[in-house]
């Protein structure tokens, strides 16, 4: 996922200055005020203190747009509780906001296998995760996820072993991830992918004025959606 500050083409709706205050590129709402209202009335009041701390820390990161939004984090937390997930995986960690949301939702003996190519970003949020008392649930592996997934698939014990898997990583590998993860998630389990509507560009006209990174990744996202 790239920053919006790339000086390239306009967003889908053609407004150069369209941007929510809170990682608005993740929302289809066309009103800053409405989105902020939802955050202030329904999301922030229910946000655990540890997640608030990590969100505020991440906001200072130059690539803060890569983080999971507060509303999405709470949705993940709720979903994991609803399906009684215990053994989970996350591909694409960044500073660990969604990871923390997952860890807080899991039972005391729950586990998360977390993969990311950059441990430095993960360590930004690690003190908050440790303070929240859930670091013992996390096994972090640094490096590209695909080779690790291929290695996991060689062990039959890993097949169907995961209750929930969340992917927020390189969109051009989404389908490659899916082909492997479908073997690792249990029957009745859930695989969640971030940005599957990709700023609304999945329904944009072929000649629509899209930012370069949005146009580049759109086809990969649409390919996954057809799988």
From TrEMBL:
Protein name from the UniProt record: caffeoyl-CoA O-methyltransferase
Membership in a protein family: Belongs to the class I-like SAM-binding methyltransferase superfamily. Cation-dependent O-methyltransferase family.
Pfam families: Methyltransf_3 (PF01596)
EC number(s) given by UniProt: 2.1.1.104
Domain of life: Eukaryota
Catalytic activity reported: (E)-caffeoyl-CoA + S-adenosyl-L-methionine = (E)-feruloyl-CoA + S-adenosyl-L-homocysteine + H(+)
An annotated GO BP: lignin biosynthetic process
CDD domains membership: AdoMet_MTases (cd02440)
SUPFAM superfamilies: S-adenosyl-L-methionine-dependent methyltransferases
Keywords noted in UniProt: Lignin biosynthesis, Metal-binding, Methyltransferase, S-adenosyl-L-methionine, Transferase
Gene Ontology molecular functions: caffeoyl-CoA O-methyltransferase activity; metal ion binding
Record has Methyltransferase as a keyword: yes
Organism of this sequence: Opuntia streptacantha
Pathway: Aromatic compound metabolism; phenylpropanoid biosynthesis
Xref: InterPro entries: Cation-dep_OMT (IPR050362), SAM-dependent_MTases_sf (IPR029063), SAM_O-MeTrfase (IPR002935)
PANTHER family (alphabetical): CAFFEOYL-COA O-METHYLTRANSFERASE 2 (PTHR10509:SF74), O-METHYLTRANSFERASE-RELATED (PTHR10509)
């Amino acid at each position: 996922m790239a920053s919006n500050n790339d000086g390239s083409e306009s967003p889908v709706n053609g407004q150069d200055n369209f941007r929510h205050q809170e990682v608005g590129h993740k929302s289809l709402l066309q009103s800053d005020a409405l989105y902020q209202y939802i955050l202030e009335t329904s999301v922030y009041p229910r946000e655990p203190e540890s997640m608030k701390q990590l969100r505020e820390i991440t906001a200072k990161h130059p690539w803060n747009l890569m983080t999971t939004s507060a509303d999405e984090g709470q949705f993940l937390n709720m979903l994991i509780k609803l399906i009684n997930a215990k053994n989970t995986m996350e591909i694409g960690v960044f500073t660990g906001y969604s990871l923390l949301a997952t860890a807080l939702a899991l039972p005391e003996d729950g586990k998360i296998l977390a993969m990311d190519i950059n441990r430095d970003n993960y360590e930004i949020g690690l003190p908050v995760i440790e303070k929240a008392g859930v670091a013992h649930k996390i096994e972090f592996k640094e490096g590209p996820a695909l080779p690790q997934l291929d290695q996991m698939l060689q062990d039959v014990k890993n097949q169907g072993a995961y209750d929930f898997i969340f992917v927020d990583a390189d969109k051009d590998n989404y389908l490659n991830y899916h082909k492997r993860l479908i073997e690792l998630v249990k029957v009745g389990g859930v695989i969640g992918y971030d940005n599957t509507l990709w700023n609304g560009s999945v329904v944009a006209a072929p000649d629509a004025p899209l930012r370069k990174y949005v146009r580049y990744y759109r086809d990969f996202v649409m390919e996954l959606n057809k799988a």
